[in-house]
Amino acid sequence: MIDRRIKFRHIQCFVEIVRQQSMKRAAERLHLTQPAISKTLKELEEIIGAALLVRNRAGVALTRQGEVFLHFAEMSVAALQQGLDGVEQLGRGDRATLSVGALPSVAARLMPDVAREFAELAPETTLRITDGPHAYLIDQLRRGNLDLVIGRLGPPDTMKGISFTQLYNEYVEFVVRCGHPLLDDPDMRRIGEWTVIFPPEASAIRSLVERVLIAHGVGDIPHRIESVSGAFGRNFARRSDAIWIISAGVVANEIAEGSLVRLPFDNAITSGPVGLMARPDGQSTPEEQVFRVAINNVVAKLPA
């Protein structure tokens, strides 16, 4: 049972101190005096029975207990803000919209669960999902047509002016239909004997795929189709002898069901971070804050 001595002001002060990394700046943001915000934090720590923050030269740092508590404190603040905004929107008779771009691996693996979680947390917000290659989605984010993008961290030149919050790591997989002849003698150097569905230039995984092919002595691939379309790849790979090179998240369900099979190639060097991308100069809206809570809830349930 929640200790009734914990008030919203305690949670709000703690979260703001962490965000600002400063007691003074947090006090200014909340229109409080510094002694008042220090007292509020002390009250919270006494109620919980643990130190949540320690002061250092950089400002403040979370203790281990503080790291655990912060996650749920941010969820509480974001959920309450969403509730207040929802009441306001109902009063105005309008409906908020959040536009999110999702790279193919995220659209297939993560977004269905995130959409359900977000719908429960923010039932009055319309979630608009756009999928596509990395370059296209980042361009739409910069233009303001998307609020957030979820996917692989792209090459440095494509990420200028974009903030990135890592969620998990993902590999690139080589997959084929059941009974594919390469399964009898899996050698990456032989993939050129068949049609290969290859990531195009605009995709985040292109450079990783080229790197792993070079590392395994694979030369030019004469018969290839460049695409990151999940719908095309699934159907073409299942109905032909094509080899599909794609992020693991795109084919996670098919591999689990057995309709596609992972070739046992060494793909360690294709590991890369998947995360949430945003414009750092844009102020996070309540809808974005709740979406971050939703995606963190889903990622926490992913198998290690």
Describe the secondary-structure layout.
Blueprint: H1 8-20, H2 23-29, H3 34-48, E1 53-56, E2 59-62, H4 64-92, E3 96-102, H5 104-109, H6 111-121, E4 125-131, H7 134-143, E5 148-152, E6 163-170, E7 172-177, E8 196-198, H8 206-215, E9 224-226, H9 230-239, E10 243-247, H10 248-257, E11 260-262, E12 272-278, H11 286-299
Parallel strand pairs: 3-4, 3-5, 8-9, 8-10
Antiparallel strand pairs: 1-2, 5-12, 6-12, 7-10, 7-11
Strand order of the largest sheet: 4-3-5-12-6
Note poorly predicted spans.
none
CATH class of the largest domain: Alpha Beta
Number of DSSP helices? 11
- Strand element count: 12
The proportion of strand residues reads: 15-25%
> Averaged pLDDT, please?
88
> How big is the Rg?
23 Å
* Percentage of residues assigned to helices: 40-55%
Fourth-level CATH superfamily of the largest domain = Periplasmic binding protein-like II
Major β-sheet annotation: 5 strands, mixed
What class would the helix/strand composition place it in? Answer: alpha/beta
Instruction: Assign the CATH topology of the largest domain.
Output: D-Maltodextrin-Binding Protein, domain 2
N- and C-termini, Cα separation: 30 Å
What can you see in these coordinates?
The chain has three domains: 8-89, Winged helix-like DNA-binding domain superfamily/Winged helix DNA-binding domain (Arc Repressor Mutant, subunit A, Orthogonal Bundle); 95-170 and 273-299, Periplasmic binding protein-like II (D-Maltodextrin-Binding Protein, domain 2, 3-Layer(aba) Sandwich); 172-270, Periplasmic binding protein-like II (D-Maltodextrin-Binding Protein, domain 2, 3-Layer(aba) Sandwich). The protein is α/β, with parallel strands linked by helices and 304 residues long. Helix 8 links the parallel strand 8 (196-198) and strand 9. 44% of the residues lie in helices and 20% in strands. The model has no long low-confidence stretch (mean pLDDT 88). The strands form three sheets. It has a five-stranded mixed sheet, sandwiched between helices. It has a five-stranded mixed sheet with strand order 9-8-10-7-11. Strands 1-2 form a two-stranded antiparallel ribbon. Helix 1 (8-20) crosses helix 2 (23-29), helix 2 (23-29) crosses helix 3 and helix 6 packs across helix 11 (286-299). The protein is elongated. It is built from eleven helices and twelve strands. InterPro entries: HTH-type_LysR_regulators (IPR050950), LysR_HTH_N (IPR000847), LysR_subst-bd (IPR005119), TF_PcaQ (IPR012787), WH-like_DNA-bd_sf (IPR036388), WH_DNA-bd_sf (IPR036390).
